[in-house]
C-alpha cells in the first residue's frame, strides 16, 4: 500500500535509498521539498528517526540567558538585536547574570544556553568573567554558550585567533556551542539579510576549529524568509559535509522565521506544513546527524509534538526567558514545565528521556 503511494507520488526511488540507508543528493533534497505529500515525507523521515533513536524523545531541563541584545549586525530577520542607546536595548552586568543563575538554583537545571548580540564595546574580559561567574554560582551546570558568530567576534576582541580564544573560553567554563547564527549559508541570502554577519564559510570554520578541540556544537537553519529551496538544500549539505569531516555536531534545529518587528515584517509566518517539511527533509538529508530538534518555542508545543512523527527526536527543553522569538512575535509561552514536555511526548507515543546536553540520559521518566 505504502509502496503504491510512494510510486504515485514519484518518491519510490528516494524511498528505496532511504530504506537502504543510502545518502540523498542535492536534487533529491529539492524533490522532497517540492513534494506536496507531507505524510509520505513524514513516513520516510520517521524510518530514519526510529533507526537512529527508536521511540525515544529527548528533552532537557535548561535555562536561557540572553545577556544583551545590543548588536552591531542588525540583521533584517532579527527583532532581538538593537542599536546601542535604543529604547529596548539592554545589557546585563556580571552581578545580574549571577542573579539569573542564583534565582533558579532550586530547579534541576543541567544546561544554561547563553546567547547575545555582537556588542560593539563590551570587552573580551566580560565574556570570560561571565563564564566564570556562572560556574561559581552553579559549578555542575553545562554552559552551552556563544554562537559561532559570537566566537568569531570574541576572537577578534582577544586578538588571538579562534583556536586560542576557544581554549581560553573553555578554561573559563564554556562546555559547548549553540547552533545559532548559521541562518542560510548562501552568500546571496547573507548579502540581502545580514551583510555584516560572519560568512557561512566563516561560521563553518569556527565549528570545525571547535570540534577539533573536542567542543561539540549545534547547527541551525533559519527558513521561511527569502531563501529558495535550493539554498536550503545547499545549506543542509554544507552541514552534512562538515559533519563528515568532524563528527562534532550534536543536533540540527530548523528555525521557523518570525517576521513581526523585523525589517522583513511584510512576510508571512511559516505554515505548519512548511515547519513539518523542514523537519522531515532535514532528517532525510542529514544522515550523519544523530538528532533533529523541534524547537517548541518557535513552532509551538502542539506542532513540536506532531514533529515527533516527522523526523524530530528532541523537543529542546524548559527554556524560560528566551527573547529572540518572543520579540519577533512568537506566541508560545517562554517556559514549559518538564511535566508538560513529558505529557506531550507520551501522548505522541514516544518514550520521554530527560537528557544532558550531550544526549546522555539523566533521569528515567
Ligand atoms: O541565530 C533570529 C534566529 C537564532 C529570528 O543550539 C530568528 O540548541 C526566527 O539558534 N525568527 C538564535 N528565528 C536561536 C538559536 C537556537 C534556539 C534554540 C536552540 C538552539 C540550540 C539554538 O534565532 C539566531 C537566528 O538564526 N532568529 N531572529 C526570527 N525573527
Description:
- With 365 residues, the chain is α/β, with parallel strands linked by helices.
- The chain has one domain (55-364): TIM Barrel, CATH 3.20.20.70.
- Helices cover 45% and strands 14% of the residues.
- A hairpin with a 5-residue loop joins strand 10 (351-355) and strand 11 (361-364).
- Ligand V47 binds next to strand 6 and strand 7.
Topology:
Blueprint: H1 2-8, H2 12-19, H3 26-34, H4 38-53, E1 56-60, E2 62-65, H5 94-102, E3 111-114, H6 124-137, E4 142-145, H7 148-158, H8 161-172, E5 174-177, H9 187-193, H10 200-212, E6 216-223, H11 229-246, E7 249-256, H12 272-285, E8 291-292, H13 296-299, H14 301-307, E9 314-317, H15 323-326, H16 338-347, E10 351-355, E11 361-364
Parallel strand pairs: 1-9, 1-10, 2-3, 3-4, 4-5, 5-6, 6-7, 7-8
Antiparallel strand pairs: 10-11
Helix pairs in contact: 3-11, 4-12, 5-6, 7-8, 7-10, 10-11
The structure holds ligand V47.
Residues 77-79, 115, 147, 178-181, 183, 218, 220, 222, 253, 255, 257-258, 262, 295, 298, 316, 324, 328 line the site of ligand V47.
Amino acid at each position: 500500500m505504502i509502496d503504491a503511494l510512494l510510486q504515485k507520488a514519484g518518491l519510490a526511488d528516494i524511498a528505496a535509498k532511504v530504506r537502504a540507508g543510502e545518502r540523498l543528493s542535492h536534487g533529491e533534497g529539492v524533490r522532497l521539498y517540492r513534494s506536496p505529500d507531507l505524510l509520505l515525507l513524514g513516513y520516510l523521515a520517521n524510518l530514519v528517526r526510529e533507526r537512529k533513536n527508536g521511540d525515544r524523545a529527548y528533552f532537557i531541563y535548561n535555562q536561557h540567558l540572553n545577556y544583551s541584545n545590543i548588536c552591531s549586525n542588525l540583521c533584517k530577520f532579527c527583532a532581538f538585536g538593537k542599536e546601542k542607546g535604543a529604547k529596548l536595548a539592554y545589557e546585563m552586568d556580571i552581578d545580574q547574570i549571577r542573579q539569573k543563575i542564583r534565582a533558579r538554583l532550586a530547579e534541576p537545571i543541567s544546561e544554561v544556553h547563553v546567547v547575545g548580540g555582537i556588542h560593539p564595546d563590551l570587552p573580551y574580559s566580560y565574556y570570560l568573567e561571565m563564564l566564570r561567574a556562572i560556574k561559581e554560582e552553579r559549578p555542575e551546570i553545562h554552559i552551552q554558550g556563544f554562537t559561532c558568530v559570537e566566537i568569531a567576534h570574541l576572537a577578534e576582541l582577544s586578538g588571538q585567533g579562534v583556536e586560542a580564544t576557544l581554549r581560553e573560553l573553555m578554561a573559563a567554563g564554556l562546555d559547548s556551542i549553540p547552533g545559532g547564527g548559521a541562518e542560510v549559508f548562501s552568500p546571496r541570502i547573507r548579502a540581502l539579510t545580514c551583510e555584516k554577519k560572519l560568512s557561512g564559510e566563516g561560521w563553518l570554520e569556527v565549528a570545525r576549529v571547535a570540534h577539533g578541540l573536542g567542543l561539540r556544537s549545534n547547527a541551525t537553519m533559519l527558513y521561511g524568509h527569502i531563501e529558495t529551496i535550493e539554498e536550503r538544500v545547499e545549506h543542509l549539505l554544507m552541514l552534512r559535509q562538515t559533519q563528515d569531516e568532524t563528527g562534532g555536531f550534536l543536533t540540527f534545529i530548523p528555525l521557523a522565521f518570525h517576521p513581526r518587528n523585523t525589517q522583513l515584517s511584510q512576510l508571512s509566518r511559516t505554515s505548519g506544513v512548511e515547519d513539518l517539511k523542514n523537519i522531515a527533509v532535514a532528517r532525510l538529508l542529514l544522515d550523519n546527524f544523530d538528532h533533529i530538534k523541534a524547537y517548541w518555542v518557535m513552532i509551538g508545543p502542539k506542532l513540536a509534538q506532531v514533529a515527533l512523527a516527522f523526523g524530530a527526536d528532541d523537543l529542546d527543553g524548559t527554556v524560560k526567558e528566551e527573547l529572540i522569538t518572543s520579540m519577533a512575535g512568537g506566541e508560545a509561552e517562554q517556559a514549559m514545565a518538564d511535566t508538560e514536555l513529558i505529557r506531550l511526548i507520551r501522548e505522541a507515543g514516544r518514550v520521554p528521556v530527560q537528557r544532558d546536553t550531550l544526549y546522555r540520559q539523566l533521569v528515567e521518566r
